[in-house]
From TrEMBL:
One of its GO terms (molecular function) is pyridoxal phosphate binding. It comes from Thalassobius vesicularis. This is Pyridoxal phosphate homeostasis protein. Belongs to the pyridoxal phosphate-binding protein YggS/PROSC family. The modification N6-(pyridoxal phosphate)lysine is found at residue 31.
Length: 217
């Protein structure tokens, strides 16, 4: 597949859902991909990327930023508190705010650094024990807690269980966001981004459909 094909599928899905053209942002998930593939997508003019590890992002994005203007990188993977400072300096947005301890650390660092990336709260919509994210029943209270800390919470993020209909999880995320007056929804990956757009996604995170399969070997 390719970047232009994914963009046209996004445009079609926006239209089918009666949404404005350009209302969905494409986060090209570049984790594990060889630099040549990332460079090719940068050369096509794309500037918004997603990474799931702080260390990996720190190893490649400073160089790309030096070569290309306007690069925007979002952290979409779990964040340990001891890497929070580095993450706040590396990313324009963090999609994985998922627990009070991390929220308090980010708030303290935001004071100290004088800036904070845009933040998304990750919700564990499938209530999977092995998965990060605040539980749906605890989401309202956690959002309020983050707001009381003056954190720039822009929206919610979820990763649905692999074996369940993702639309149900996207709809749940949308409902939690709506009742908390949050407008941004980070949901949908290579296999289900059109369903996510139908349910109101504002940010889709697409990796393998753009870059090809990840080679973890
Ligand atoms: C890797 C990853 C993606 C992209 O997955 P694809 O199936 O390759 O599109 C999206 N979101 C998160 C949180 C990821 O870790």
């Amino acid at each position: 597949m390719s970047l232009s094909l994914i963009k046209s599928r996004i445009a079609k899905a926006e239209a089918a859902a009666g949404r404005a053209p350009g209302s969905v942002q494409l986060i090209a998930v570049s984790k594990v991909q060889p630099n040549e593939r990332v460079q090719a997508v940068l050369d096509e003019g794309h500037r918004l990327f997603g990474e799931n590890k702080v260390q990996e992002a720190a190893g490649k994005w400073p160089d790309f930023r030096a070569q290309y203007a306007g690069v925007n990188v979002h952290l979409i993977g779990p964040l340990q508190t001891n890497k929070a400072r580095q993450a706040m300096q590396l990313f324009e947005a963090i999609h994985s705010v998922d627990r009070p301890k991390l929220a308090h650390t980010l708030a303290r660092l935001a004071q100290e650094l004088g800036h904070c990336p845009d933040l998304f709260i990750q919700v564990n919509t499938g209530e999977e024990p092995q998965k990060a994210g605040i539980l749906p029943t605890e989401a309202d209270a956690f959002i309020a807690e983050c707001r009381a800390l003056d954190l720039p919470i822009r929206g919610l993020m979820c990763i649905p269980p692999v074996d369940e209909e993702s639309s149900l999880h996207f709809a749940l995320l949308r409902k939690i966001a709506a009742r908390n007056d949050l407008t941004q929804l980070s949901m949908g990956m290579s296999d289900d981004f059109e369903k996510a757009i139908a349910q109101g996604a504002t940010h889709v995170r697409v990796g393998s459909a753009i870059f090809g399969a990840r080679d973890y070997a």
